């Protein structure tokens, strides 16, 4: 079984890319806000860096966007970029999967005839 023929792996890859984009946006936002205690308790601390849950970013955006609009504009761009990169990965995966078939027997509307 080829990796690109399994759509499960493609869905998992796209989901991971999107989550990583939001997580990076959350970490970047926390850093820009100097890891303020108002952000809440971190999930865990890695070295000296507090690590926050990725979904907390959306609550921060709702609560603090009025105080730091430029920060949240850029963080939204970072999070959105994760979605766009995930979409690109899905399209590339679909193209690769469609090109793997060597024995194509359907052409145009003859599939339904």
Provide a descriptive summary of the structure in words.
The chain has a two-stranded antiparallel sheet. By secondary structure, it is mainly α. 16% of the residues are buried. The protein is elongated, with a radius of gyration of 20 Å. It has one domain (17-98). The model has no long low-confidence stretch (mean pLDDT 87). The protein is built from 3 helices and 2 strands, in the order αββαα. Helix content is 58%, strand content 5%. The two termini are 30 Å apart. The longest helix is centred in the C-terminal third of the chain and has 31 residues, at 69-99.
Question: Briefly, what is this?
Answer:
The chain is mainly alpha-helical. The chain has three helices and two strands, in the order H-E-E-H-H. Strands 1-2 form a two-stranded antiparallel ribbon.
Which percent range fits the helix content? Answer: 55-70%
Taking pLDDT < 50 over at least 5 consecutive residues as the criterion, the unreliable ranges are none
What best-fitting shape do the alpha-carbon axes yield?
A: elongated
The major beta sheet can be summarized as: 2 strands, antiparallel
Overall pLDDT score: 87
Number of strands: 2
Distance between the termini: 30 Å
């Amino acid at each position: 079984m080829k990796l690109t023929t399994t759509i499960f792996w493609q869905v998992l890859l796209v989901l991971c890319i999107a989550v990583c984009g939001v997580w990076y946006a959350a970490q970047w936002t926390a850093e820009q806000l100097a890891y303020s205690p108002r952000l809440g308790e971190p999930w865990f601390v890695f070295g000296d860096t507090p690590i926050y849950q990725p979904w907390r970013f959306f609550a921060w955006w709702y609560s603090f966007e009025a105080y730091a609009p430029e920060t949240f504009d850029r963080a939204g761009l970072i999070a959105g970029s994760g979605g766009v990169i995930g979409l690109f990965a899905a399209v590339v995966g679909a193209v690769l999967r469609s090109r793997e078939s060597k024995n194509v027997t359907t052409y145009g509307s003859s599939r339904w005839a």
